[in-house]
Structures are given as C-alpha cells and as structure tokens.
C-alpha cells in the first residue's frame, strides 16, 4: 500500500518535531517535509507534492486558512487538515469555506491524530461535530437569508473595521501597529481575521472591499499617505 505523503505546517519548531515524531513509526505515513508558515508551505508544494497537509490555523506571514484557500485553488486534490490550540467557531467556519477536510484541536491523543490522518487521506471529511455546530448553523443562515440582507463587513468587530480602513489606505502591518498602538503581531492577527471573515485571500481584495462598500470615510479614500 502506498504511504500517505504528509506535509507538516506550524510556526513552532517544537510542535513540528512533536508531530513528526508521532508519525515516525507508522509505515503508511511518510512526512515529506515541514514548513513554518503558509507562505513557505505554498512555495514547497510543487517540490514535495504532499497528498495531505497538517496545517496550523494561526501563523505569521500567511495564516493557515489563507494558505488553505490558496493551496486548494492551485492543488484541489490535496487534502488539508487544520489543527489548532483554540476552539474558535469563526476559524472553523473559515476553514470550511477555505476547503479544509478537517479541523482538530492539538490536545487530541496520538491515536486520534493517526486515525484522523488516515481518514482524511482516504478521502473522508473529518470535522469535529462540537466544533462545527455553530459554523454549520451560520452556513445555513447565510444560505437562506439572501446576500442582500447582509450588511457588508457586519461580521467584523469595531477594531477590525478600524484595521480594514487602514488596509484600504495602504498601511503595512507595522504602520497599522503604530497607528493603533498595538504590537505588529497583533496587527497581523487582525488582518488575518479580517481576511478569514470576509472570505478574501489578499490585502488588496480587502482594500477593494472596504472602498466598494464605503467602509472607509470618503476623506480617507483620497487622502495622501503619511508614510
């Protein structure tokens, strides 16, 4: 039987080593490589040719959900299993929309992890019922309510709307952090959450969305940048 070609993607080296160790003695699982974020995983896809990707949800530079969306658009036959330390219904919802085959918490046992890898590699979907219950309800609501009744950007928090306005003005993560007096990592997380909630892949798309739906004050849409 052919082994499962697995790529591990996580921004913590210790986690990657631990995951690799969990598969070392399994004859049907071959870890073909590792990546520290979504961008690196995307760059390695053509060389490593994995069958399945075990992907962390929250990573710097490119989040797991953003990478999942991009990888599935380029390599639709690759299965992606999202893994995280947090129970986050928004992330479950975004993972489902991005095309992930499953969503797991990092506190699961080794036996459960191996079972999940094999199930997803066989073509099955694996989404924890407890984690996706609210996300499924939200999908149903969106499908039946009609897009015209939805307020553009209404799912964003007040702070995320502030960040979106700055994205539309062309601010980098560092500039957003300086403007809002937060860390650059916090700014990156806000940007990732905005893209996930809006179902977008790039900052440029978020900027266009903000301008199109008038989420940026008119005086700011044409204002000369300070940087």
Explain how this protein is built.
This protein is of the alpha/beta class and 227 residues long. The chain folds into 2 domains: 4-141, 3-Layer(aba) Sandwich (Rossmann fold), CATH 3.40.50.2300; 151-221, Arc Repressor Mutant, subunit A (Orthogonal Bundle). It is 53% helix and 13% strand. The protein has 11 helices and 6 strands. Strands 2-1-3-4-5-6 form a 6-stranded parallel sheet, sandwiched between helices. Strand 4, helix 4 and strand 5 (102-105) form a beta-alpha-beta unit. Helix 2 (38-48) runs parallel beside helix 3 (64-74), helix 3 runs parallel beside helix 4 (89-98) and helix 4 packs across helix 6 (129-145). The longest helix has 17 residues, at 129-145. It is elongated. The model is unreliable at 219-227 (pLDDT under 50).
User: Based on the structure given, which CATH architecture of the largest domain is correct?
Assistant: 3-Layer(aba) Sandwich
Mean of pLDDT: 81
Q: Which CATH C-level class of the largest domain is it?
A: Alpha Beta
Proportion in helices: 40-55%
What number of domains? Answer: 2
The number of distinct helices, counting runs of at least 4 residues, comes to 11
Low-confidence stretches: 219-227
Task: Tell me the strand order in the biggest sheet.
Answer: 2-1-3-4-5-6
- N- to C-terminal distance: 58 Å
Q: State Rg.
A: 19 Å
